[in-house]
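Changelog note: in this version the structure field was regenerated for every chain. One regenerated record is shown below for reference.
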Amino acid sequence: MSYNHIFQDVFRFLCEYPPDLTAITCRADLFMNSKKTILILIIAALISTFFIFDLGSYLNLEYIKSQQNSLQSWVSENTLLALGAFMLIYIAVTALSLPGATVMTLVGGAIFGLFTGLILVSFASAIGATLAFLIARYLFREPLSNKFSNYID
C-alpha cells in the first residue's frame, strides 16, 4: 500500500471531495472546534513543559527547605511580586492538576505566614479548581452528553 493511497483513505474518511480532489469540503462534525483545539494544545504544552523541564523537582519539601532562607529574603524584598507569583503558580498547578499543590500549600504558610498563606492558598485553590472545572466542562460537555444521552433526563 503506497502513502498516496493512505492519504486518499484518510481524506475519504474525513472529507467529502469531488474525484479531482480540488475542492475539499470537510464535514464539521468530524473536526473539533478550533478554539477547543487551541485550548487542548495550550494545556498539553503547559503540562509537557512541567514534566520535560522537571519542574516538579522544585515542588518538594527538601528543595524548599534548602532554599527557605533565600525565598524568605526574596519575599521580604518583593512582597507584592511574590504574592502574585505564588498565586499564579498555585492557580496553574491546581487548574492543570499537576502534582505539587500540597507542597505549595505548606510553602504558602511557611513563607507568607499562617494568615496570609491561608488567604492566598484558599483563593488560589478555589480559582484553580474553578478553572479546571470550566476547562473540563468546555472540552468534554458535548462528547459526554452524546455518549450518555440515554441516561440523561
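Spot check on this record: The longest helix spans residues 114-147. The first strand starts at residue 15 and ends at 16.
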